[in-house]
C-alpha cells in the first residue's frame, strides 16, 4: 500500500474512476483501492463522502473549465485563442465529463456545477466574434459539439472529434472574415475592434 497520498490525488482518482467506470462506480472503496490506501487516509483529507464528492466536482470545474478558459483568455491573438480553446476541448477527459453529466441528472448540486461549466464554455466561445447573432450560434455549435461527443453511445472516436473541431474552426474563421469585410472602413482597412 502507498505510504502517503494527497488531497489532489484523491480528487484526480475520483475523476479517473468516473472516466474509467462511470458515476455508479464512484465509491470510497474503489477510490482507496486505486490509491492503495485505507479509508482512514481518506478521512484525513475529507469530512465524509459528501464532502469528497463536492470537492471532486469543484476540482473538475476549477481544473478542467476555469483554469483552461482563463489560460486561453490571456492569448490576445484571436486565432491562437481559438486554437487554444479547441485543443483544451479536445484534451478534456470526455469519459469523465460524460459520467459527470449522468451524475448531474441525479444530483442538483452537481447539476449547478455542470450548468456553470456549460455557461463558462459557452461564454468563452461567445467572445470570439463581434457579431452577437453569429457569436451566439457559434457558441451553441461549440457546446453542442462537445456535449454531443460526450453523450453519444457510439465508441468515442477522437480523430472524428478533431475533424469536427477543425470544421468548426474553419467555419468560425470564415465568419470572422465575413464580419471584417462588412466592417471595412472607407479607406479599405478593417476596423480595429474586429476580433479573430
TrEMBL record:
Keywords: DNA-binding. InterPro entries: Homeodomain-like_sf, HTH_TetR. Residues 176-185 have a biased composition (Basic and acidic residues). Residues 27-46 bind DNA. One of its GO terms (molecular function) is DNA binding. Residues 4-64 form the HTH tetR-type domain. PROSITE patterns: HTH_TETR_2. Pfam families: TetR_N (PF00440). Residues 176-196 are annotated as: Disordered. The keyword DNA-binding applies. This is Helix-turn-helix domain-containing protein.
Amino acid at each position: 500500500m502507498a505510504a502517503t497520498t494527497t488531497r489532489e490525488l484523491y480528487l484526480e482518482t475520483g475523476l479517473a474512476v468516473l472516466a474509467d467506470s462511470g458515476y455508479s462506480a464512484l465509491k470510497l472503496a474503489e477510490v482507496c483501492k486505486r490509491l492503495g490506501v485505507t479509508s482512514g487516509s481518506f478521512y484525513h483529507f475529507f469530512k465524509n463522502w459528501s464532502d469528497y464528492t463536492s470537492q471532486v466536482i469543484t476540482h473538475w470545474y476549477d481544473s478542467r473549465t476555469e483554469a483552461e478558459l482563463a489560460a486561453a483568455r490571456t492569448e490576445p491573438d484571436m486565432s491562437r485563442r481559438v486554437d487554444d480553446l479547441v485543443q483544451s476541448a479536445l484534451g478534456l477527459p470526455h469519459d469523465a465529463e460524460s459520467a459527470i453529466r449522468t451524475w448531474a441528472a441525479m444530483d442538483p448540486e452537481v447539476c449547478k456545477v455542470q450548468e456553470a461549466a456549460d455557461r463558462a464554455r459557452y461564454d468563452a466561445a461567445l467572445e470570439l466574434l463581434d457579431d452577437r447573432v453569429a457569436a451566439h450560434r457559434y457558441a451553441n455549435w461549440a457546446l453542442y459539439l462537445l456535449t454531443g461527443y460526450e453523450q453519444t453511445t457510439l465508441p468515442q472516436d477522437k480523430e472524428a472529434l478533431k475533424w469536427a473541431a477543425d470544421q468548426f474552426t474553419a467555419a468560425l474563421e470564415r465568419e470572422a472574415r465575413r464580419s471584417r469585410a462588412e466592417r471595412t472602413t472607407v479607406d479599405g482597412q478593417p476596423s480595429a475592434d474586429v476580433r479573430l
